[in-house]
Write a structure and sequence with these properties.
The chain starts with a helix and ends with a strand. Helix 5 (77-92) runs parallel beside helix 7 and helix 13 crosses helix 14. It contains 19 helices and 13 strands. It has 448 residues and is an alpha/beta fold. Helices cover 48% and strands 15% of the residues. The strands form two sheets. Strands 5, 6, 7, 8, 9, 10, 11, 12 and 13 form a nine-stranded mixed sheet that branches. A four-stranded antiparallel sheet has the order 2-3-1-4, covered by helices on one side. Bound molecules: S-adenosylmethionine. The site of S-adenosylmethionine (SAM) has 17 residues, from helix 14 and strand 6. One of its GO terms (cellular component) is cytoplasm.
Amino acid sequence: MKSQSNAREIALKILYQINEKGAFSNIALHKGLRNFNGKDVDRTFITELVYGTVKWKITLDWVINKYSSRKVNNIDPWIRNILRMSLYQVMFLDKVPPFAACNEAVELAKIYGSRGTSGFVNGVLRTILRNLKNIVYPDIKNPEDYLSIKYSHPTWMVKRWIKNFNLTFSEQLCKANNNIPPLTVRINTLKTTRDHAIELFEKEGLKVNKGRFLDEALNIQNIPSIAGLTSYKEGLFQPQDEASMLVSHILAPQAGQLILDVCGAPGGKSTHIAQLMRNKGKIIVRDIFKHKLKLVDMLTRRLGINIIQIQEYDARVLDEDLINKADRVLVDAPCSGTGIIRRKPDIKWTRQEKDLEALVRLQKEILKVSSHYVRKGGYLVYSTCSLEPEENEEVVKNFLESNDSFIIDDISPFIPIDLKDEIKDGFLRTFPHIHETDGFFIARLKRL
Ligand SMILES: C[S@@+](CC[C@H](N)C(=O)[O-])C[C@H]1O[C@@H](n2cnc3c(N)ncnc32)[C@H](O)[C@@H]1O
């Protein structure tokens, strides 16, 4: 019990950084756990508390506002995070007895609050507990509030999804966004085979299943910390979602070619490309951020890749030296990330609808400049992990309107048979609730 109290306090400090200081959840969690030398089960509990509380913020705040004399926004920041974290346990974690979550919240309020706050926390949580089964959420007749509060998504996001898709689709999507995604990894075929990797993982005590679409994909369970695994240190695999793996397959690089990855950090796709090229040829990986390129360097070393050349470069600026030179160009554009909310729930709170306009401008600019690097007969792949048509189809269509030297190329030869029906207007889109992958958009263009 003592170690769980400690875990809750660590989770609270991480949540404070995310919710009050604007830290990214994955980075805040990594920092918060860096010096944690407790048990694996507590590490897993902290991760669950942090991601769960961040994920369900709108729903939790809505319930707190219903039963508290003070609105969430007027409650002391430490105390509102204690309330959110405790309510998350009460509402969503079967394994935690509600009274234990309340008692622990009261203890934390004594440490992080002023006089009287522990009584306030106790009162709010016990009132909610008494009423938990009778909470009435907004009616589906008011679909935006219904989806937003029931599934904890910002109104602007659900509003555009209802408009772009439909209500049923959006509800399934929101539901899937709240599921815990599997840890999918790509086997590094430069160093091992899938069967050998499965054998090793099982020896390391992990439960492994084959991926849904691709041969090099495995889903791993019971994994408290991958960085500690020998198989990870030896570079036998890299965490990567299957939809993200599809991008490199659709690029279809050949051994010996010159590939340019203009928005390449942290290197997930470019290292996959190197793998598909059997580590033969040359890949120039660029990014505007130096610190992110360090991650590409570390990754290529761990995976044993030596055909990647890393360059700090702004993709909006034309590089005269590379015009018409590349066999393949990948534009894996910076985007809103609405397709990866399962993995990064804070996207729901950090992204604003008004960000889209600037992102679309950037995407169009990067695509236009990068197209100059494709040699005649070469290919360009444009991808995002966004679900928004403005960042996807519309960017590509806008590009093609002013570029008659490119056409949409058939991607069906490069994707698994079960996905072929999913191609619409020549583009592939994946969705968490349909494919159980991240949401991706992928287009393959041919230079004439
Ligand atoms: C979707 S991520 C790329 C992920 C990467 N392809 C992978 O698979 O690991 C987009 C990247 O674009 C970079 N970026 C943003 N603006 C850029 C620019 N103007 N020029 C080059 N890179 C940029 C970001 O730093 C980010 O690393």
